[in-house]
Amino acid sequence: MPIESVKMEGVAKKYIVMSGKGGVGKSTVAVNLAASLALSGKKVGLLDVDIHGPSVPTMLDLAGAQLETDGEKMLPVEVPGIEGLKVMSIGFMLKAEDSPVVWRGPMKNGVIRQFLEEVDWGELDCLVVDCPPGTGDEPLSVIQLIGDADGAVLVTTPQNVAAVDVSKSVNFCRQLNLPIVGIVENMAGFACPRCGEVTHVFDRDGGKKLSERYEVPFLGSIPLDPAMAESGDSGKPYVARFADSTAAGVYQEITRRL
Ligand code: ADP
Which ligand 1 atom lies nearest to the CA of residue 247? Predict the structure, then answer.
């Protein structure tokens, strides 16, 4: 049965950040991409629909944020220190950070729909969506409910297993007619905090090989960098703290392509 998509008037472009599996840095990429776009002067919304692991509030230090409404719809939360960036996370609606979500499939889809319908974004240049991982029911609902997304950014790590998973995401997007902006390879080599040299812990160039094999653009490699994890925990995005770094350059490159 075709799913009726949710109208998001006033939102010019919508991009979905996806990954074949959890833990590859999808939310980190979504947060830094949204922040990078906002720092370049755009009006940006970041929508975290990762029901089981909504980490965006922690990554932007918004965990205790109070949701407000305009009488009808929920208003996204503005990110202090990054002008033009607003956030809505399914995490704001869950009771406690450490309570697991135990909804069954159809309930999850209902929650995702309600969540997408009931946010008033106002005028946005760009909406970045942090999608649940994998190629199951939840990402399927997100893509179908958004309906007219402009593209998907696929996040992978260099190990072969994650690369195989992302190849499923490539096929998933193609089946759903969702254009692929490209592949970001995260945790590609370890950036030494002392000298900056990058050591390749895993297979080299997994994301690049994959992009050639599937004929999708390669957007760049982001090293495994302790400062990236620390930024995620501290609530200030890496791209705002280290604007001149190589990783921030990768985000700026993706921003240009969008
Ligand atoms: P996902 O959304 O795919 O589950 P997250 O973005 O939550 O993954 O990242 C998982 C963990 O890895 C987080 O603690 C995050 O800070 C960390 N992380 C992500 N990318 C990097 C990186 N390039 N270097 C170091 N740590 C990273």
Answer: 23
**Residue at 1 is within a domain:** no
Residue 216 contacts residue 174 (beta carbons within 8 Å): no
Structure-token pair, residue 140: 């399927």
Count of structural domains within the chain: 1
pLDDT tens digits, residue range 35-44? 999 999 999 9
Q: Is residue 138 part of a domain?
A: yes
> Is residue 16 within 8 Å of residue 146, measured between CB atoms?
yes
Q: Is the CB of 19 under 6 A from ligand 1?
A: yes
SS3 164: helix
Q: Which residues share a beta bridge with 186?
A: 222
Q: Does the residue 6 lie in any domain? A: no
Band of pLDDT at residue 65, cut at 50, 70 and 90: confident
Q: Which residues pair with 69 in a beta bridge?
A: 74
| Angle, in degrees to the nearest 10, between helices 226-234 and 26-39 | 80
Nearest to residue 154, comparing CAs of 126, 127, 183? 183
Domain of 250, in residue numbers? 11-257
- pTM of the prediction? 0.92
The letter for the amino acid at 243 is A
Domain-embedded: residue 2:
no
**Selection from 19, 11, 2 nearest residue 186 by Cα:** 19
Residues 169 and 183: their CA atoms lie apart, in Å, by: 10
Q: Ligand 1: which residue has its CA nearest to atom 20?
A: 25
Task: Name the residue of 28, 51, 219, 241 whose CB sits within 8 Å of the most ligand 1 atoms, as the mutation to test its pocket.
Answer: 28
- pLDDT tens sequence across 113-158: 888 888 999 999 999 999 999 998 889 999 999 989 999 999 988 8
Six token digits for residue 212:
């050639």
